[in-house]
Here is the input.
Amino acid sequence: MSKSDFLSRAEQMHSDLGPALCLAKWKQVSLHLPTGLNNSCYHPPLHRIPIEDIGRNPGALHNTPHKKEQRNLMLAGVKPAECSYCWNMEAHDKLSDRHYRSGEPWAAVDFDKIKNSTGDEDVIPSYVEVNFNNVCNLACSYCSPQFSSTWQQETDRHGAYPTLVPHNAPEHFSGDRKPIPARQHNPYVEAFWDWWPTLYPELEHFRMTGGEPLLDRNTYRVFDYVLANPSAKLHLNVTSNFSVDEKSWQKYLAYMKQLCNGRIEHFMQYVSLDAWGAQAEYIRHGLDFDLLWDRVNQFLTQVPSYSSLTFIITMNNLSVSSLAQLLAGILELRKKHSTTYQRVWFDTPVLREPAWQSLQTLGESYAVRLDAVKNYMSAHLETPAAPFKGFKDYEVARLDRDIAWMRSGQDLDQSQHLADFYRFFSEADHRHGTNFLQVFPEMRSWWAECEYHARQT
Ligand code: SF4
Here is the structure.
């Protein structure tokens, strides 16, 4: 099978970019408007948007002084420490997200302009992710009150989790770390809507995350704007847990049918799912897996054109057991719904925080399980004779780099992380009425190891 364009472009960027440049630092932004924070892609830590700048220049939502400093470092060939996610991948001789992202057309088109810039210019990004508010009906294990009002309610009621450093402590999410509630005036959301008429004509990818966007009135304000101002180059994206109430779901589906009817280039539906069945429900508290899977099929059937669906599988230590089942389910969806183009995608970014849920906490026997998943994928690659029905070469490459990163943790002392895993999920079981060993019986000896470390400290 010939190499995909996506992989070829990333390899080209590997030789063109030099040691530190990443076009995503200019062309991409993730905006967290409830807290007034942003980052370039979603890997570097979030940093504050100076509130004093956005009134006179709403473009300062993206072009912060901090980001301009990082751009200057990159242009000087210096790797910014905040991009360690990519440097770690590259240290293992893998292509990193900076190669993949910079190789995509929305970024690559400005390669020469960026290479010859000073780093101090204001830039209008072409790839924007935005979180308007933190209203969410789920409390996923690795999320926080910053992104989920359900988490916020739980910690307001029960307090922090008893990990070594108390986790998701309500005190931590106070002051300027406290999300501005959806019902209150938010100056960052106001600046966003001031910026929107300037931003919209440049946009090639616009993605709404959350909180849960299907519950957010700003989502439907964007949809109404797009319906009134169709854009032939716009890739509109929404990340959802697909678990909202039926009325919200039907409203959303009705908008989808209008939008995916020639009003935009393409609609990408992102669905967050990290495992299969009860294990997925355990990771994402409040999720109904069967309902989600049914809605995935509804979406793919009832919104048949100008649209695709991508599963975001955030690879964590609770994903390993049922990853093969999840990928087999995705393969079935591909066979059923992808006939003239690929409608079902997935990505496998690794989870780094909280550290107790990282793949790196697991030993070699779990890495071997992922090797088996990788071999299964390699044995079911897409072929020219059966297009869209198999896995892609770069999907195998991404899992391969996850496994390499996982194995690099085997030399590190994980005892504190194992102890925290036990403390966190024991408390979660207590609060949620769940039972780790009933859901993950195959992880019994690992759980015992975690308990042992928790009792030592
Ligand atoms: S983390 Fe990687 S992809 Fe993201 S901005 Fe930094 S170098 Fe680019």
